Amino acid sequence: MTEHLLLVEKASHWKGHVNGYPVVTAAEYLKDPIWQQKRGLRIVNLCRSQKYLGEGYYCSLLAEARGHKVIPSVRTLRDLSRKSLYSLETEDLDKQVQRILGRRHKGVETTSFSVTMMFGNSPLKDFQPLARELFELFRAPLMRIVFEKKADWRITGIKALGIQDLSDDQQDELDDALNGYLSKRWQAPRQKRMGRYDLAILQNPQEAMPPSDPKALKKFVRAAKKYGLDAELISPKDYGRLSEFDALFIRETTAIDHHTYRFARKAASEGLVVIDDPDSILRCTNKIYLEELLKLHRVSTPETVIVRSGGLDELEEKIAYPIVLKVPDGSFSLGVYKVENRQQLEQVSRKMFKDSDLLLGQAYTYTPFDWRVGIINRKPLYVCQYFMSKDHWQIYDHSSVDKEGDFRTFAIADAPKKVVDTALKAANLIGNGLYGVDLKETENGIVVIEVNDNPSIDSGVEDQVLGDALYEQIMEEFLVRIEAGKTPVSNSRP
C-alpha cells in the first residue's frame, strides 16, 4: 500500500484533521535516515520556503532523488518562480479567464482579483474548470492565482503557497481537498507534444569559460548540415525567436536562476527537442540532489555530509580535515573551498549559508587527474583525463593566470572499463541526454564526483580521438529525436 507523507516547516503549522497521514517537518525529512531509506512514498510538500535553495525546495529536490513521488516537483517550483516561465503555459487559458471574470464582474469597476486554489479545487464554483486546468499544468498543492484587467482579464500572477499562508477559515477546505487528492491515483502533469528541422545552438560570446570554443561550435554547425539540420548560433537576446526552431542545443554554462534554464524550459514547452533538457539541468546543477541519487543507487562517491546551518559539529565528527565545502550549484570549480580547520570552516560556511540553506561537506580526495566520460543517449562518447592545474588541488585555479591543467583523451576501448561502466551507471540515473561524468580513481576504487549536464566539448580536446565524428554523433542524435518527436528523457518521478 502506498504511504503518504505531509511536509511542513514546523509541526505547529499543521492544524488539520485529516487522519492516517503522518506529518513530518522539513528538517526531519532532510536529516532522518528513515526517510532516505523508505520506498514508495507519496509526499505532499506544504512548506512555504520553496524559493530556490530554500528548505522546502530541498525537500522536493531530495524527494525526487530518493525516488519518492512529490508535489510540487522541483520543475514546478522553478516554473512558478518566474512569470516568464509560467506564462508560457497560461496564455491558452486567458480566453477562459476573460469569460469567467467578464461575466462575474460585469458592470463592476474591479481591475484585480485573486483566488486560492487547493489541489485543483476552487472555493468559487465558476472557477472550478480553470482550477483543474491550472493544477494539470502546475502540480502545486496550494496556489494563489492573481487576475488583472487591462483591456481584458488575464492571469498575471501564480504563487505556490505554504500551509501557514492559509487562514483558519480555509482549514476545512484544505482537509477536504487533501483527502480528495490522496484518494486518487497519482498522475504526472500534462506535457505538450513536439514537432519538426532547424537547430538553434545557444552560445554566449561574452562567457569567460564556455563549454565549447568557437572552433567546436563551427564543427557542430558543419556536422548538422551532414544530417539535414540547418544550425544557427543564437545568443541570449534571441529568446523570443525559439519558436522558429525545431531543436535547441545549449552550449552555454547552465544554471537554474539563469536565462539558460529559461531557454530550455521555453523550448520544451513549445515542443522543441532540447539538450540540455530542463529536468537534466535541474538535477545535474545541484550537487546535493546528485549525492542523494548516487547514494540511493549504490554509486560510490567521496564520503559526504549534507550540512545545515548549525551542523558543523556533525560534519567534523564524520569527516576529518581537510574538508571540501561545496555550494550546491557551482560549476568549473567555482563555489568549492578546501578548509583546514574549524576556524576556516566557520568563516567559509558562514558566507556560503547566505546563498543556500544546505551545503555539501566532502572528504578531501586528491588525485593528479580526474576522469571525464562524455555520454550521449546512454552510450559513451569520449573519455578524457583532466590534470590538476599547476600547484593547485583542482583542475581550474581561478586565482592564477595559468589556471587550467593539462589533458589526455582516450578511445573508449582504451579507457579503464570500470571508469566507463561507473560513469554510465551514474549518467543513466539522470536520463538519456548529453552528460559528462567526473570520476576519481582512488586506492578504494572509482568514485563519482559529479554528473554535468553541459559537458565541455572543445576543439582539440574532447574530440582529439574521434575528430569530426564526435560532433556528428551528437547531431545524428538530434535528427533521430526530431524525427521521433521527443526530447531527452530524465529518470524523474513526477
TrEMBL record:
Pfam families found in the cross-reference section: RimK, RLAN
Keyword line: ATP-binding, Manganese, Nucleotide-binding
Gene3D superfamilies: ATP-grasp fold, A domain, ATP-grasp fold, B domain
One BP annotation, GO: SOS response
Gene Ontology MF, one: ribosomal S6-glutamic acid ligase activity
Statement: the UniProt record of this protein carries the keyword Nucleotide-binding: yes
GO cellular component, one term: cytoplasm
Keyword 4Fe-4S in annotation: no
Annotated InterPro entries: ATP-grasp, ATP-grasp_RimK-type, ATP_grasp_subdomain_1, RLAN_dom
Domain ATP-grasp stretches: 291-479
Name of this protein: RimK family protein
Organism this protein belongs to: Sedimenticola selenatireducens
Organism classification: Bacteria, Pseudomonadati, Pseudomonadota, Gammaproteobacteria, Chromatiales
